[in-house]
Each structure stands twice: as structure tokens, then as C-alpha cells.
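Reviewer 2 asked us to include a model.

Predict the structure of this chain.
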Amino acid sequence: MIRVLYFARLREQVGTAGEELTAGPALATVADLIKTLRQRGGRWADAFGADQTVLSAINHELAQGDQSLADGDEVAFFPPVTGG
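Predicted model (C-alpha cells):
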């Protein structure tokens, strides 16, 4: 399983703080995960749309779209500026 966490405006947009998804070839990278979320449509497509800036971290370390995901990873998504 891959644990996915949403922070700040993303949590508000998608209506959940987190979820678990089954790891596998369809979720090989962060970019694959974003594509899967975007394909849900509606609020997911809005939150993860191509015009949105979303940062990601794998296991508490900043990650790029091409970084690989593995079973047991925790992926966090957040906007570029949080808190204040």
C-alpha cells in the first residue's frame, strides 16, 4: 500500500486528509500517482490539474515526478507555500 496525504488547500479541495492506494505498475512514479488522481475527474482534476503547482514528498523527503514509488511509501502532496 502507498499512503497518500494531502495538506493545506489540497486537503480542502479533495475533501480528505489522506488515503491508501494499492502499489503496483500503474503507480510506479509520483507522476503516475498524480495522473491517477487527476483521472478521477471533478475536484481531483482541479486540484492536480496541469495549471496547479503541487509539491510532493516521499517518506518526508521532497520528490520529483520521476521518482519511483514502492509498497510502504508515504507520499505527501502540498502547495508551494503553507502556514504563515
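The chain has one domain: 2-78. Helices lie at 9-14, 30-38, 42-47. We have added this to the supplementary material.
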